[in-house]
Amino acid sequence: MPVMELIKDLVEGRLKLPAFREALDRDGNLRVLLGQDVQLPPYTRHGTLLDYVLAQDGASAGAAVNVVDAMEKFLTLNGVDHRTDEAAREEYRFILSVCPA
Q: Which of 44, 43, 33 is nearest to 2 (CA)?
Protein backbone atom coordinates (compact mmCIF):
# COMPACT_ATOMS: atom_id res chain seq x y z
CA MET A 1 0.00 0.00 0.00
CA PRO A 2 1.37 3.46 -0.86
CA VAL A 3 2.51 5.35 2.23
CA MET A 4 0.19 8.32 1.68
CA GLU A 5 -2.70 5.83 1.64
CA LEU A 6 -1.64 4.53 5.06
CA ILE A 7 -1.67 8.07 6.41
CA LYS A 8 -5.01 8.76 4.74
CA ASP A 9 -6.44 5.54 6.24
CA LEU A 10 -5.41 6.75 9.70
CA VAL A 11 -6.95 10.19 9.19
CA GLU A 12 -10.15 8.79 7.68
CA GLY A 13 -10.62 6.25 10.49
CA ARG A 14 -9.90 3.03 8.61
CA LEU A 15 -6.68 2.48 10.58
CA LYS A 16 -6.20 2.94 14.33
CA LEU A 17 -3.07 4.40 15.89
CA PRO A 18 -1.64 1.06 17.16
CA ALA A 19 -1.90 -0.41 13.65
CA PHE A 20 -0.33 2.74 12.19
CA ARG A 21 2.57 2.36 14.64
CA GLU A 22 2.98 -1.25 13.51
CA ALA A 23 3.08 -0.04 9.89
CA LEU A 24 5.88 2.34 10.90
CA ASP A 25 7.86 -0.64 12.17
CA ARG A 26 7.39 -2.56 8.91
CA ASP A 27 7.45 0.13 6.24
CA GLY A 28 10.76 1.87 5.67
CA ASN A 29 9.20 4.19 3.10
CA LEU A 30 6.70 5.46 5.67
CA ARG A 31 9.53 6.06 8.14
CA VAL A 32 11.50 7.98 5.50
CA LEU A 33 8.47 10.09 4.53
CA LEU A 34 7.64 11.03 8.13
CA GLY A 35 11.32 11.53 8.92
CA GLN A 36 11.63 14.40 6.46
CA ASP A 37 12.14 17.93 7.68
CA VAL A 38 8.61 19.38 7.55
CA GLN A 39 7.36 22.43 9.43
CA LEU A 40 4.06 21.54 11.11
CA PRO A 41 4.06 23.32 14.46
CA PRO A 42 3.54 22.33 17.18
CA TYR A 43 4.13 18.73 16.10
CA THR A 44 7.56 19.23 14.54
CA ARG A 45 8.86 21.79 17.01
CA HIS A 46 11.31 19.29 18.51
CA GLY A 47 11.96 16.96 15.58
CA THR A 48 10.21 15.24 12.72
CA LEU A 49 6.72 13.82 12.42
CA LEU A 50 8.29 10.39 12.83
CA ASP A 51 9.79 11.48 16.17
CA TYR A 52 6.42 12.89 17.21
CA VAL A 53 4.43 9.75 16.35
CA LEU A 54 6.94 7.43 18.02
CA ALA A 55 6.87 9.52 21.20
CA GLN A 56 3.09 9.14 21.57
CA ASP A 57 1.39 6.55 23.79
CA GLY A 58 -0.47 4.37 21.29
CA ALA A 59 -3.14 3.49 23.88
CA SER A 60 -3.96 7.11 24.74
CA ALA A 61 -7.11 8.68 23.30
CA GLY A 62 -5.40 12.08 23.46
CA ALA A 63 -2.42 10.78 21.50
CA ALA A 64 -4.73 9.36 18.83
CA VAL A 65 -6.39 12.76 18.41
CA ASN A 66 -3.05 14.56 18.22
CA VAL A 67 -1.45 12.13 15.76
CA VAL A 68 -4.52 12.22 13.50
CA ASP A 69 -4.43 16.02 13.61
CA ALA A 70 -0.73 16.04 12.71
CA MET A 71 -1.25 13.58 9.85
CA GLU A 72 -4.27 15.56 8.64
CA LYS A 73 -2.09 18.67 8.42
CA PHE A 74 0.61 16.63 6.64
CA LEU A 75 -1.88 15.41 4.03
CA THR A 76 -3.13 18.96 3.49
CA LEU A 77 0.43 20.25 3.13
CA ASN A 78 1.03 17.61 0.45
CA GLY A 79 -2.21 18.33 -1.42
CA VAL A 80 -3.82 14.96 -0.62
CA ASP A 81 -7.62 15.05 -0.54
CA HIS A 82 -9.01 13.47 2.61
CA ARG A 83 -11.97 13.48 4.96
CA THR A 84 -11.16 13.42 8.65
CA ASP A 85 -12.97 10.87 10.80
CA GLU A 86 -14.18 12.58 13.97
CA ALA A 87 -14.57 9.36 16.03
CA ALA A 88 -11.26 9.77 17.90
CA ARG A 89 -12.07 13.38 18.80
CA GLU A 90 -15.56 12.42 19.95
CA GLU A 91 -14.15 9.60 22.10
CA TYR A 92 -11.64 11.99 23.65
CA ARG A 93 -14.35 14.59 24.36
CA PHE A 94 -16.44 11.88 26.03
CA ILE A 95 -13.53 10.75 28.20
CA LEU A 96 -12.90 14.34 29.27
CA SER A 97 -16.59 14.84 30.08
CA VAL A 98 -16.72 11.89 32.48
CA CYS A 99 -13.36 12.43 34.18
CA PRO A 100 -13.39 14.48 37.35
CA ALA A 101 -11.64 17.81 37.00
A: 33
Q: Is 61 helix (H, G, I), strand (E, B) or coil?
A: helix
Q: Are 33 and 71 a contacting pair, CB within 8 Å?
A: no
Cα gap 77→80, rounded to integer Å: 8
The closest alpha carbon to 9, from 89, 90, 72, belongs to 72
Tens of pLDDT along the chain (101 residues) come to 689 999 999 999 999 889 999 999 999 999 999 999 999 989 899 899 999 999 998 777 788 889 999 999 999 999 999 888 777 667 656 666 667 66
52: left (phi over 0), alpha (psi -120 to 50) or beta: alpha
